[in-house]
């Protein structure tokens, strides 16, 4: 049994990770300040004696004796990370410093939830780990993108200077149950709108692309990256599903799967919204023997079921 710390443990991805780690027989401590996370996501874990939930902000130091850290604390939806941009930078940068300092002190292995946003609005397509990216350092997305880039810098330098065992996962757009209904990201927005027969809000002309990964695939990639890589491997690894869709295609698929009467409406494209995104997962396939297994339709159906239940509970 390992003792594992998950920062952002009450969030969308964090809640799935805590659940999986506990099911595998580990002891889990979840840290969260509940900015975008919710106790509802982990309510079924609260009675488990091997699970501990601590209200804590990662911009402040934290100490515990643990074997591994998954550092997920950070708002991930553009509307939430732009709400308090300075706090977003602090969460990424000071959070990374505090967690890396802890990992160094107690000799824990640490995994960083980085992002495809480090590639910005990419000119290289699909994106390989060796691509340095195209980020506007002054734009409205930069608090998140640059915060995550500095976090990666901190991670590799804690490896170089202090031999901390680090792992960096560059996560591409991930969706699934436990996303917040008002999260603001495209999959949850479209499903909630479709289930309520409300207008589907397409930003721009909908020809921008994303590659959507179901959360279970991400969690298995996380664990393989943490456990199945050489101690001295410190490079970033793309974890995503390479099947690329336009936002219009996503909207039409969601309407079809929900039998919705929703209409499409077109709203302005937010500043610096990346036009294309697709992971090259050659490295993950080779090094982790990992590749995503869940198709968009299967993943969307599971997510639709989740939101359908949630909305019925809310309005009944
Ligand atoms: P989320 O917003 O649901 O979860 C983030 C969690 O971190 C929330 O529970 C939130 O309350 C907590 N948090 C935020 N600031 C904190 C702070 N200062 N101290 C403690 N807790 C704090 O988002 P998510 O989709 O679950 O994302 C989890 C991680 O994965 C994030 O680091 C995000 O950047 C990364 N990521 C996610 C995606 C995706 O598509 N979901 C893509 C790339 C990267
Ligand atoms: N988007 C959209 N309608 C929405 C929410 C998002 O058309 O209601 C678009 C958004 O402009 C972007 C894509 O969907 O082009 C993915 O947005 P999301 O916020 O989910 O993630 P990110 O832009 O960070 O990849």
Task: Describe this entry's structure for a reader.
With 316 residues, the protein is α/β, with parallel strands linked by helices. The protein has a domain at 3-177 and 213-242 and 278-293: NAD(P)-binding Rossmann-like Domain (Rossmann fold, 3-Layer(aba) Sandwich), CATH 3.40.50.720. It contains nine helices and 13 strands. It starts with a strand and ends with a helix. The model has no long low-confidence stretch (mean pLDDT 97). Bound molecules: nicotinamide-adenine-dinucleotide and uridine-5'-diphosphate. Uridine-5'-diphosphate binds at residues 77-78, 173, 185-186, 189, 201-203, 208, 210, 247, 270, 273. Residues 77-78, 173, 185-186, 189, 201-203, 208, 210, 247, 270, 273 line the site of uridine-5'-diphosphate (UDP).
């Amino acid at each position: 049994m390992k003792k594992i710390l998950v920062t952002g443990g009450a969030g969308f991805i964090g809640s799935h990770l805590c659940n999986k780690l506990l099911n595998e027989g580990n002891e889990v401590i979840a840290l969260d300040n509940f900015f975008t996370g919710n106790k509802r996501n982990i309510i079924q874990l609260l009675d488990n004696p091997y699970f501990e939930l601590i209200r804590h902000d990662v911009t402040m130091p934290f100490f515990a004796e643990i074997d591994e850290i998954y550092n997920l604390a950070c708002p991930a939806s553009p509307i939430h990370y732009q709400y308090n941009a300075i706090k977003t930078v602090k969460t990424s940068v000071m959070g990374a410093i505090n967690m890396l300092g802890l990992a160094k002190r107690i000799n824990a292995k640490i995994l960083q939830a980085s992002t495809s946003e480090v590639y910005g609005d990419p000119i290289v397509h699909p994106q390989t780990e060796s691509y340095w990216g195209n980020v506007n350092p002054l734009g409205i997305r930069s608090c998140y993108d640059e915060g995550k880039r500095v976090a990666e810098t901190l991670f590799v330098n804690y490896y170089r200077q202090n031999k901390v065992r680090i792992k960096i996962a560059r996560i591409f757009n991930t969706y699934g149950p436990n996303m917040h209904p008002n999260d603001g990201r495209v999959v949850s927005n479209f499903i909630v709108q479709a289930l309520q027969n409300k207008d589907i809000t397409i930003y721009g002309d909908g020809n921008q692309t994303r590659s959507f990964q179901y959360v279970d695939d991400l969690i298995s990639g996380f664990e393989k990256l943490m456990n199945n890589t050489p101690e001295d491997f410190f490079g970033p690894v793309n974890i995503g599903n390479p099947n690329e869709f336009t936002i219009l295609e996503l909207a039409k698929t969601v309407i079809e799967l929900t039998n919705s009467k929703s209409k499409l409406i077109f709203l302005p494209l937010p500043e610096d919204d990346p036009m294309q995104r697709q992971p090259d997962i050659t490295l993950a396939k080779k090094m982790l023997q990992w590749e995503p297994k869940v198709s968009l339709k299967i993943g969307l159906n599971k997510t639709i079921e989740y939101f359908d239940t949630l909305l019925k509970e809310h309005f009944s």
